[in-house]
């Protein structure tokens, strides 16, 4: 950059007053300082004092424009970097929070799973001890899956049929009446006692499905030869049953020891017959359904 300094001394034509001024000139700006102020260089009338703005070149104007654009772009880039930094920090904070929550929940779930597993093992152990201590439970809860020892509990033992609140077993062995009663006692029951018409219908229908002309002992007999009839629990026969269920009402005064058999015919009514107790027949055992207390 070159700077040229010129000193001039001028005199006014009227009074001979002299005035000095210095002229600075550079490629970008030109200034002229007079005795009374700054005057425009190169003008004809230099006698008047005054202050003039610098004269900029075309190159200086273009440079200032680019400088302004650069500063604006720098501001935008700085703002963008700030926003990206804040977004990254927020995302990192969010991910950290999610990770902490997930780890906390995983630890809690692991503790719960461990506690449940321990309770399950304790329950299985108690379950096995229960069947070991009470073998009769195997009748109500037989193993249905040998590979997993899975059991299925029912209100009636295996092989028995449920009706109402009682269980019934149709035997295949042919025994006399008293032997049939002992057999029912050995499996936890008695010979069947019919206490309602609904029960009679169930026993008759099931006997008809299973038998091939066979009859079944039920728990009814005369206490003494020629005496009153009663069930195995010593309860009397309900009123009205004599006319409904007997095929032939036993004759009073018969001195033989008689017991009742159920012979499934065309109707559930008239299905009882008085027979010598020493005859060998199949039987129907009865017991109360099992319940969990």
From TrEMBL:
Domain C-type lectin: 163-286
Keyword field: Disulfide bond, Lectin, Membrane, Transmembrane, Transmembrane helix
This protein's record includes keyword Transmembrane helix: yes
Molecular function per GO: carbohydrate binding
PANTHER family, per the entry: CD209 ANTIGEN-LIKE PROTEIN C-LIKE (PTHR46746:SF9), KILLER CELL LECTIN-LIKE RECEPTOR SUBFAMILY F MEMBER 2 (PTHR46746)
Protein name (Swiss-Prot/TrEMBL): C-type lectin domain-containing protein
InterPro entries (UniProt xref): C-type_lectin-like, C-type_lectin-like/link_sf, C-type_Lectin_Receptor_IMM, CTDL_fold
SMART domains: CLECT
Domain of life: Eukaryota
Organism: Oncorhynchus mykiss (Rainbow trout)
Gene3D superfamilies reported in the protein's UniProt record: Mannose-Binding Protein A, subunit A
Membrane-traversing stretches: 76-96
């Amino acid at each position: 950059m070159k700077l040229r300094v010129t000193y001039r001394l001028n005199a006014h034509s009227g009074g001979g007053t002299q005035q000095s001024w210095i002229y600075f000139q550079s490629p970008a700006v030109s200034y002229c300082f007079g005795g009374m102020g700054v005057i425009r260089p190169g003008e004809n009338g230099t006698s008047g004092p005054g202050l003039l703005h610098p004269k900029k070149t075309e190159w200086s104007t273009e440079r200032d424009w680019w400088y302004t654009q650069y500063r604006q772009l720098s501001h935008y880039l700085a703002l963008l970097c700030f926003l990206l930094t804040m977004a990254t920090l927020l995302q990192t904070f969010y991910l950290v929070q999610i990770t902490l929550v997930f780890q906390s929940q995983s630890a809690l779930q692991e503790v719960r799973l461990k506690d449940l597993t321990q309770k399950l093992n304790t329950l299985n152990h108690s379950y096995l001890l229960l069947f070991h201590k009470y073998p009769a439970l195997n009748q109500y809860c037989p193993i249905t899956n040998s590979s997993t020892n899975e059991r299925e509990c029912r209100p009636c033992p295996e092989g028995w049929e449920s009706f109402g609140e009682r269980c019934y077993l149709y035997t295949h062995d042919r025994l006399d009446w008293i032997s049939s009663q002992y057999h029912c006692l050995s499996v936890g029951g008695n010979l069947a006692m019919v206490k309602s018409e609904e029960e009679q219908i169930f026993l008759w229908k099931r006997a008809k499905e299973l038998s091939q002309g066979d009859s079944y002992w039920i728990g009814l007999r005369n206490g003494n030869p020629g005496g009153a009839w009663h069930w195995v629990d010593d309860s009397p026969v309900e009123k009205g049953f004599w006319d409904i269920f007997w095929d032939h009402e036993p004759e009073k005064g018969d001195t033989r020891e008689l017991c009742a058999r159920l012979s499934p015919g065309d109707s559930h009514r008239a299905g009882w017959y008085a027979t010598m107790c020493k005859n060998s027949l199949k039987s129907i055992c009865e017991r109360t359904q099992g319940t969990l207390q």
